[in-house]
Amino acid sequence: MTQIVMPMHTNGAAGVMFGGIMMQWIDVCAGVAAMRHAAGAVLTASIDRLDFMSPVRVGEIVVLQAQVNFTSRTSMEVGCRVETEDMHTRTRRYVTKAYLTFVAIDGDGRPRPITPLSLVTESDQRRHHEAETRRRARLEAAGRTERTGERPGTP
């Protein structure tokens, strides 16, 4: 996904992009990747920590790339990498990345199964393994179990 930073996307005085706008673009880009994999509707369940490495300014081109890294029964992790591109030199500058978790839903808004991820390349396998580690940490931090995603002792 490619966007151009307009004055309405910035704080005005400094001409620096609002972080919330960047988060919205990341959510949309990653959401499209999730919907394509799930072949239907998804909901954003979480977004991991988001650190901005350098400011993005008015007039810059923002290039967002998303890829499904991991799938569970009804959920998936999507990674989104964000860069700016200088339209004159075509050079890119890495700005941030984020990992988002999406849940596929049916017509009634309930979680539904999704197709497992096909791990073709070594890079696919590496991303999947790293995402699995992040998932375990997220579930543990939330007090949930790996197998069910539910809190221990809940009915």
Can you tell me about this structure?
There is one protein chain. The chain has 2 helices and 5 strands; from the N terminus they run E-H-E-E-E-E-H. With 155 residues, the protein is of the alpha+beta class. It has a single domain (2-141), classed as Hotdog Thioesterase (Thiol Ester Dehydrase, Chain A, Roll). The protein has a 5-stranded antiparallel sheet with strand order 1-3-4-5-2. The chain starts with a strand and ends in a 14-residue tail after the last helix. The relative contact order is 0.18. Mean pLDDT is 91; it is low at 151-155.
Give the structure's gist in a few sentences.
Helices cover about 25% and strands about 30% of the residues. The chain has two helices and five strands, in the order E-H-E-E-E-E-H. The chain has helices at about 20-40, 120-140, and strands spanning about 1-5, 40-45, 60-70, 75-85, 90-105.
Strand residue percentage: 25-35%
Shape: globular
Determine the N-to-C terminus distance: 42 Å
- The CATH topology assignment is Thiol Ester Dehydrase, Chain A
**Gross CATH architecture:** Roll
Structural class: alpha+beta
- Main pleated sheet: 5 strands, antiparallel
User: What is the N-to-C succession of helices and strands?
Assistant: EHEEEEH
The CATH superfamily appears as Hotdog Thioesterase
What are the segments in which pLDDT stays under 50 over at least 5 consecutive residues?
A: 151-155
Mean pLDDT: 91
> Radius of gyration in whole Å, from Cα?
17 Å
Number of strands: 5
Q: For the record, what CATH class applies?
A: Alpha Beta
- Summed up, the helix count is 2
In spatial order, strands of the major sheet run 1-3-4-5-2
